[in-house]
Specification:
It comes from Methanogenium marinum. The protein is of the alpha/beta class. It has helices at residues 14-25, 43-46, 57-88, 102-112, 127-133, 136-143, and strands at 5-9, 33-40, 92-99, 117-122, 148-152.
């Protein structure tokens, strides 16, 4: 089959929701299994830039742990909802939630699961944001050994 196993990296954004629709269309190309991957690089990625004001080191650690647990539970719920859509379409789903560098983990998991295609979303960043933040999708494209489908979000409101 052309795309027997697909690795879909999701951050649960509207762009990722659009990528889910692409995977559902790939059933016509032989897609039977989806490795549904969410990579978190920690609470700082989502909300924390520095220690919250007025908290000592121990309190900040507890705060960070609580936030990390909350984000993990939220990711599990969103993962379940997304996996259900794939299962209802007759696809086998392997949900994976891990922490680490997103590009590193996407490439590693896709390789280890023998995925024939990686699907990632691309947030429209330009100028300095692109230069400083980098691009997970561009990094995955450079390093992956299999084809990468990038779902762009430029027309998503």
């Amino acid at each position: 089959m052309l795309f027997d196993t697909v690795c879909l990296a999701t951050d649960f954004s509207p762009i990722s929701a659009r990528a889910v629709d692409y995977v559902l269309r790939l059933t016509n190309a032989g897609c039977r299994k989806v490795v549904l991957l969410h990579v978190s690089d920690g609470p700082k990625h989502h909300l924390i830039i520095s220690e919250p004001p007025g908290l000592d080191a121990d309190s900040a650690t507890i705060y960070e742990d609580t936030l990390r647990d909350h984000l993990h539970r939220e990711a599990q719920q969103l993962m379940l909802e997304t996996a259900t859509r794939f299962q209802e379409a007759g696809l086998e789903v392997e949900p994976v939630i891990i922490s680490g560098n997103p590009a590193d983990e996407i490439v590693r998991i896709a390789e280890s699961r023998d995925a024939s295609l990686i699907i990632v979303g691309a947030h429209a960043r330009k100028g300095l944001k692109q230069a400083f933040l980098g691009s997970v999708s561009a990094d995955v494209i450079r390093r992956a050994h299999q084809p990468v489908l990038v779902v762009r979000g430029s027309d998503i409101q």
